[in-house]
Amino acid sequence: MTERNPEQVTVTDKRRIDPETGEVRHAPPSEPGGAAGGAEPAAAPEGAAAGDKVAELTADLQRVQADFANYRKRALRDQQAAADRAKAAVVSQLLGVLDDLDRARKHGDLESGPLKSVADKLDGALSGLGLTAFGAEGEDFDPVLHEAVQHEGDGGEGSRPVIGTVMRHGYKLGDNVLRHALVGVVDTVDTVGEVVEQAEQSDTADNDDTTAE
């Protein structure tokens, strides 16, 4: 009777750690571990796409924040401009009252009494709002601030127009001109320039005399 050879049995050690060396075994590509290891590089494109999406959303957020900041600045600027226009409109209505007080002051009616107290309080309140008067005799004429209704002199070379008389003061609210000053202009000669020129001529003559000696 013939004996059959037993089938050869193959045992595969699937332990990831070698019991003899204690080192981690590297799974071949055909094993599940190897398949998982081979799938890891595929995650790189997904990570790059996620990073691009984050960068895009961050840029959108920064753009929205910048737009909101610009809108807020513009809104505050428009609000301030509207407030300035309203304040200028109210103050402009009181300029006639200030003219009457100026005339009363010139006649000595504001030296004492209740009217002086009212005038002082009104001047203080308007000054607190930023109202300032301009236009005084002897100041240089400035067409941006002054309106000339009289002009004396020929305006020749070396002359300088100055304010001779003030018919009505001008007023500014902050940097804005509410009303120009009505003035009479007089052409004057720049005496300071003449004195300097005469001194220079005198020095030149002295130097010439010294050289001649």
UniProtKB/TrEMBL annotation:
GO molecular function, a single term: unfolded protein binding
Database matches in CDD domains: GrpE
Principal cellular location given in the protein's record: cytoplasm
One of the protein's GO biological processes: protein folding
UniProt xrefs under Pfam families: GrpE
Biased composition, class Low complexity, residue ranges: 38-51
Record keywords, A-Z: Chaperone, Cytoplasm, Stress response
Residue numbers spanned by region Disordered: 1-51
Listed PROSITE patterns: GRPE (PS01071)
Keyword Phosphoprotein included in the entry's annotation: no
GO cellular component assignments: cytoplasm
Compositionally biased spans, kind Basic and acidic residues: 1-28
Cross-referenced InterPro entries: GrpE, GrpE_CC, GrpE_head
Localization: Cytoplasm
Task of the protein: Participates actively in the response to hyperosmotic and heat shock by preventing the aggregation of stress-denatured proteins, in association with DnaK and GrpE. It is the nucleotide exchange factor for DnaK and may function as a thermosensor. Unfolded proteins bind initially to DnaJ; upon interaction with the DnaJ-bound protein, DnaK hydrolyzes its bound ATP, resulting in the formation of a stable complex. GrpE releases ADP from DnaK; ATP binding to DnaK triggers the release of the substrate protein, thus completing the reaction cycle.
Quaternary structure, from the entry: Homodimer.
Record-stated family: Belongs to the GrpE family.
Protein name as annotated: Protein GrpE
Annotated organism of origin: Mycobacterium conspicuum
